[in-house]
Task: inverse folding
């Protein structure tokens, strides 16, 4: 037989705590954002969406056309509820809405993860968010990334500077995704510098930000001192082999994961690759790839072709990302 506390917990997990009137008010705010006329049938469908997706510790209204008006309503009415996960991805929150949500997050002490992916949030919105997080000691994970071409966030260099200032103060935030935000080389350099003063960021995604080779080299310079960082993702950043080699040298003793066109990530020994298959023994890289590596070699054996690279961990001999086998010189297999 369940105890009263267990029965109460089960009830919270299966029922939505948001009252009908608040659901209707949020629906009206959404209609104002979208400039559409409200109707009873639409209101009922929206209330059902809230009933299904906002219960227990999770508030999830992704892809629901929520804009600044809805964000303003949420910032005022979410405070009584003990949600720990806030998912508002693929809406239309924009900078104005981000200012409203930032006021909520500044003082909130229950939310630990917020997903704001693809919401047309620009530099001003990014600045508002990271300024608010300077005073938040609960939130540990932020997703501010973008789906390419769809309501993209674009915090740019200004937002990157705000993030850098935030992590110099905030020592709780650990997982941050800034993929596809246009921060550029200078933004990467600013963030890299701030990581030297941070002891909490363990997972950082800077993919698709036009960082380039020089930006990668700037990141590589600070990696040995960024002790908290366990995973760095830098896909699709137009990084040449020179930048990749510098990053590899800076990460000696850690697992390094590569993806096509650029390095994917490095992963510390505490989070090993899921791919447990061993590569074939290799005495040297295939002919014509990488040039002379006899002096000061990086801590990984590289198998590369132009900008598409993979690497072999020297300690565990594991291939550190999924790839296809292709015939190598003399019929020996290597990884594409």
Result:
């Amino acid at each position: 037989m369940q105890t009263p506390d267990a029965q109460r917990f089960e009830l919270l997990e299966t029922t939505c705590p948001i009252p009908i009137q608040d659901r209707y008010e949020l629906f009206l705010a959404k209609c104002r954002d979208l400039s559409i006329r409200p109707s009873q049938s639409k209101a009922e469908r929206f209330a059902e969406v809230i009933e299904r997706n906002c219960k227990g510790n999770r508030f999830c209204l992704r892809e629901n056309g929520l804009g600044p008006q809805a964000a303003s309503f949420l910032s005022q009415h979410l405070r009584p509820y003990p949600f720990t996960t806030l998912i508002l991805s693929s809406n239309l929150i924009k900078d104005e809405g981000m200012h409203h949500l930032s006021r909520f997050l500044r003082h909130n002490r229950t939310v630990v993860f917020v997903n704001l992916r693809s919401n047309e949030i620009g530099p001003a919105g990014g600045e508002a968010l990271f300024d608010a997080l300077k005073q938040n000691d609960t939130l540990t994970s932020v997703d501010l990334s973008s789906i390419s071409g769809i309501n993209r966030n674009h915090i740019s260099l200004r937002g990157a500077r705000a993030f850098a200032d935030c992590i110099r103060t905030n020592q709780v935030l650990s997982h941050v995704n800034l993929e596809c935000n246009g921060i550029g080389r200078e933004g990467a350099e600013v963030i890299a510098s701030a990581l030297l003063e941070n002891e909490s960021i363990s997972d950082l995604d800077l993919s698709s930000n036009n960082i380039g080779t020089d930006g990668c080299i700037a990141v590589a310079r600070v990696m040995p001192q960024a002790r908290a960082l366990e995973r760095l993702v830098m896909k699709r950043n137009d990084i040449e082999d020179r930048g990749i080699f510098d990053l590899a040298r800076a990460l000696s003793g850690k697992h390094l994961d590569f993806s096509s066109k650029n390095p994917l990530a490095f992963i510390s020994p505490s989070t090993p690759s899921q791919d447990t298959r061993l590569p074939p023994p290799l005495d040297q890289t295939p002919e014509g790839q990488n040039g002379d590596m006899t002096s000061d070699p990086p801590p990984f054996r590289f198998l590369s072709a132009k900008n598409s690279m993979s690497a072999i961990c020297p300690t565990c001999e594991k291939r550190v990302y999924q790839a296809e086998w292709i015939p190598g010189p003399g019929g020996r297999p290597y990884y594409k």
Observations:
- The longest helix spans residues 20-34.
- The first strand starts at residue 54 and ends at 55.
